[in-house]
Design brief:
The protein has a domain of 88 residues: HIT family, subunit A. 23% of the residues lie in helices and 19% in strands. It is built from 3 helices and 5 strands. The longest helix is centred in the middle third of the chain and has 17 residues. The protein is globular. It binds adenosine monophosphate (AMP). The site of adenosine monophosphate (AMP) has 13 residues, from loops.
């Protein structure tokens, strides 16, 4: 089910449980600020999620309330993961869903890294 609006952070969302080690993940990177792991239902040969370690629902609360260190750490981690996965030369798509209209399903901020194939158009047409 898509996330509706940006309510308070739910500490029992699935990514919070992964961060606490309650649910396993196929980890590809971890540092003080971020965790990256393979998406459980990949839509491209490389489909990795990068999440901040802090409790943020989406970009709105992250950008407004995270510390400068957290923001820098998270953004740097996204770049590191893309580089480590060998995606810089062929290219990749970075995407993040925010709230209901986007179809965001998990209410913990996450960036999708898609790679390993031509991505095609960003959105389908027509928009009806
Ligand atoms: P979004 O629709 O942007 O919120 O994306 C949520 C993503 O999380 C989807 O691509 C799911 O396949 C993925 N996902 C859900 N549960 C897990 C899990 N336990 N481990 C890895 N990825 C997951």
């Amino acid at each position: 089910m898509p996330v509706s609006g940006l309510g308070p952070y739910d500490p029992n969302n699935i990514f919070a449980r992964i961060l606490r080690g309650e649910i396993p993940c196929k980890k590809v990177y971890e540092d003080q600020w971020a965790l990256a792991f393979h998406d459980i239902n990949p839509v491209s040969p490389v489909h990795v999620l990068v999440i901040p370690k802090g409790a943020y629902v989406a970009f709105a609360d992250f950008s407004a309330t995270a510390s400068a260190e957290e923001i820098a750490g998270f953004i740097r981690a996204v770049g590191t993961v893309a580089r480590d996965l060998g995606l810089e030369a062929p290219g990749y798509r970075l995407l993040a869903n925010m709230g209901e209209d986007s179809g965001q399903e998990v209410p913990h901020l996450h960036f999708h890294l898609f790679g390993g194939r031509k991505m095609g158009p960003m959105l389908t047409r027509p928009l009806t």
